[in-house]
Automatic annotation (TrEMBL):
MF GO annotations: carnitine O-palmitoyltransferase activity
Cellular component, GO annotation: mitochondrion
Residue ranges constituting the Choline/carnitine acyltransferase domain according to the UniProt record: 2-101
Family: Belongs to the carnitine/choline acetyltransferase family.
Signal peptide: none
Gene3D superfamilies per UniProt: Chloramphenicol acetyltransferase-like domain (3.30.559.10)
Name of the featured protein: Carn_acyltransf domain-containing protein
Matches recorded under Pfam families: Carn_acyltransf
Domain of life of the source: Eukaryota
GO biological process, one term: carnitine metabolic process
PANTHER family given in the database record: CARNITINE O-ACYLTRANSFERASE (PTHR22589), CHOLINE_CARNITINE ACYLTRANSFERASE DOMAIN-CONTAINING PROTEIN (PTHR22589:SF99)
SUPFAM superfamilies, sorted: CoA-dependent acyltransferases
InterPro entries, A to Z: Carn_acyl_trans, CAT-like_dom_sf, Cho/carn_acyl_trans
High-level lineage: Eukaryota, Metazoa, Ecdysozoa, Nematoda, Chromadorea
């Protein structure tokens, strides 16, 4: 067993060494301010991920987010689809220089939106 663990470690060591990670502690605001704006902190972060990914990759991707279905048998999880027509339109509006971002809203609860 010890030899197998060492073999696996040596196989993955180059991948570990190739990983770059940067972390920033964000203290400007937290979930309290997001909730005060009547937004879901989780939805807010998902939209931030969609925006950041689009700015970096110039395309939309489906991200995986598990959702606990605790009221279902055996506590299974469901997958949420965070890329929708509405979220894509929101991201594009955020990047539109002609859009007044202060008037842009997105309500993930009922997918209503006011986009430029």
């Amino acid at each position: 067993m010890k030899a197998e663990i060492e073999r696996c470690y040596n196989a993955y060591k180059p991948k570990i060494d190739d990983l770059d990670l940067a972390a920033t502690i964000f203290r400007t605001f937290g979930k309290g301010l997001i909730k005060k704006g009547k937004l879901s902190p989780d939805g807010f972060v998902q939209m931030a991920i969609q925006l950041a990914n689009f700015k970096d990759q110039k395309k939309f991707v489906l991200t995986y987010e598990s959702a606990s279905a605790r009221f279902y048998a055996n506590s299974r999880t469901e997958t949420l689809r965070t890329a929708s027509k509405e979220s894509c339109a929101f991201v594009k509006s955020m990047l539109d220089p002609n859009c007044n971002v202060s008037s842009l809203t997105f309500n993930s609860e009922n997918n209503s939106k006011s986009l430029c």
